[in-house]
Amino acid sequence: MRIFKQLFNFYINSSIHVGLSCYALVRMTQHMFQISSDEPIANFVFFGTIVGYNFVKYDALARAKKLKMRKELKIIAVFSFLALLLVGFYFFQLQRITQIVAIAFLSITLLYTLPFFPNKKNARNWAGVKIYIVALCWVGVTLALPILNADVSITLDFYLKCIQRFILIFVLVLVFEIIDLANDDPHLQTVPQQIGVKRTKILGLLLLLPFYFLELLKSNFDTNQLIVNLVLVIMIALFLLFANEKRSKYYTSFWVESVPILWWLMVLLF
Backbone phi, then psi, for 184, in 5-degree steps? Predict the structure, then answer.
């Protein structure tokens, strides 16, 4: 049992789970736009997410010397380095335009983590913008990159999906912000800090309405997708309603981050 818990914690702490969430969203994009299996972009996003998230999570602590290199962290560091090599491998299999846009999102990740400007905090600590940066990056990486790499024409459906994907990530991040409310720096000005937990939950529930009904505007409307999305909306609504500061870290780091994976699995079943 102890070994299982250690393996599970490594799975979470090394960002494999969040990597799978991004991978699932890439597969959802390929399904929605009828893109034949494009392994390089899916694998690039998976390993890139692992590297990016581990960098964001552990870099600041390491530079502040608040992070002791325990055995698990050393393993995560080695694992992240191997993932970085695979990111490079798959990067050179992408289209040139995809590579350029991927570098742009890499720059946003670096800006999010590192303080580039003198006497200024990194973007992660800019008041009120964290949730928008995270949602924008997820939309770009899981939706724009697969579309660009497959050379799919940009139509109204693409913009509708961008809005849907942004809302999805925004609402999921709201759950994280509610759970982290007690520990977040007040200067971050997260949504719950600005409007309170109750109004944050109402905002999240209201945003799920356009997320769902935008599906009706697609040119290739799919009834099965509407059913799957309804299940998804109910699932997210429950996570949002039952979110509070006393929840276990696994509530968000495993269950909430499983939502994109479960969404993809539901599509596969249908």
Answer: -70, 140
